[in-house]
Amino acid sequence: MPVLHRSRPAMASTFELILSGDDPEHLDAVASEALEEVGRVERLLSRHDPAAEVARLNRDAAVGPVLVDVELFDVLRDCLDWSRRTGGAFDPCAPTGRILEDLRIEAGRRAVRFGAPGARIDLGAYGKGYAVDRAADRVASYGVAAMLQVGTSSARGLGSNAGGRPWVVALRDPFAEPPAMATVDRFVLTDRALSCSAVFGPGSGRSDLLDPVTGSPLERPAACAVIADTATEAEVLSTALLVMGRERAREFVSGTAAGRPAPRVAWIEQVDGTTVVEWWAPTLERIR
């Protein structure tokens, strides 16, 4: 069965698409449409492109209410919901403000304004997950099996690989120094998404993850991998759980099981120089 690989740069990352099917021309058309969807989402959510909706919001919403696109309005309401659910650990306004305090929305006319002059929205990781999900929706609408990846940190599997085999992903050791690409686990990713975040990037001595309460970078070395139904949820939680810290994160994950499907979470730390992975989901289908 033919397998097609396509990629495009977006959101300071590389989005990769692996498609499996019987018709190479059809796969190519589906890949082009899916990757164009990634570009469309980038043009909507970018804070760097002056023409993007988010950039316009950041420029004008401190002055007065800004009427926004229907899709962006829904994204912002989703961000507010995630911030509430995580107790503020997820906050795309940090460090310029707090989303629960500084983002004011008027549902009746889809207007948004900031309550603080310096507040800004940065949808970084959320935006990457959202782009993966929108691209996956495009692929799924054609009934094509696919794996979508963003760099080495995120993935979403749809259907099965060539020959009906499940998609298998490897979890990179976040403590391995570059250019090493050591892995700490391998598992099946069927119709679910994965995101892995680390307090410190490879070779970095300062974290780009901030505590929304203090505005300071996280300091304790750790990483968190999340498997969830959507890439957006996995991206949100892989960073929010790190902000919470190990104990509060575990309490949060155990508390989600009653109301909705609990994500599968791996907490990754180094103990005496050895990388230790603790999955909070014993039913994960691992590949050895």
UniProtKB/TrEMBL annotation:
Keyword Lipoprotein: yes
UniProt keyword terms in alphabetical order: FAD, Flavoprotein, Lipoprotein, Magnesium, Metal-binding, Transferase
EC number: 2.7.1.180
Superkingdom per UniProt: Bacteria
GO MF: metal ion binding; transferase activity
EC class name: transferase
Reactions catalysed according to its record: L-threonyl-[protein] + FAD = FMN-L-threonyl-[protein] + AMP + H(+)
Cofactor: Mg(2+)
PANTHER family per record: FAD:PROTEIN FMN TRANSFERASE, THIAMINE BIOSYNTHESIS LIPOPROTEIN APBE
Protein name: FAD:protein FMN transferase
Organism of derivation: Tautonia plasticadhaerens
Protein encoded by which gene: apbE_1
